[in-house]
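Recall from the previous lesson that a structure prediction takes nothing but the amino acid sequence as input. Here we apply that procedure to Putative phloem protein from Lupinus albus. The sequence below is the only information supplied.
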Amino acid sequence: MPFKKPHHTIDPHYIFQQIKCMQESGGYLIKPRGLNIIWGNDPRYWNVQDNVAELIQVSWLEVSGSVPVTKGKKYKIKFHVRVKEDGFGWKNTQVLVMAKVGRRGNYQFMQTTLKSDGNELTIPFEKDLEINVEHDAFDTNLHFGLYEVWSGKWKGGLEIFKAEVIPV
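The prediction returns the following tokens.
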């Protein structure tokens, strides 16, 4: 029996670059299959489709991505999500949206709390997570993600529709 990887890895066909005008690159729209999802290939934990990744249950939430960005620009990172009404494990649990420039960069993050109310929302919602790309940056890949790995609680019912990296 061949070994199947338990983690879903980025499919670049689901990362769409937005164009502002002929000369200027816009941001990125990343569909669920364009993200790395820990345990994403295991149907006990995730159901990953083209337009939605549905979390069945995990105790380690790690969803990440990476896109090339332009030196000297600023970007904001957003995830479009919903926690279904029967979602569990989210009460009093901080979820982090994190990002950094380059593999060796320092992460910046925003904390948010999710509710099992069935409403779609964009996170972080209280304040944007904005990342500056320095003019002298060597590695210009923006690494970003959605994480909850610290509580040890089992969580389920989260739906991820897309992530966005938007120039400011």
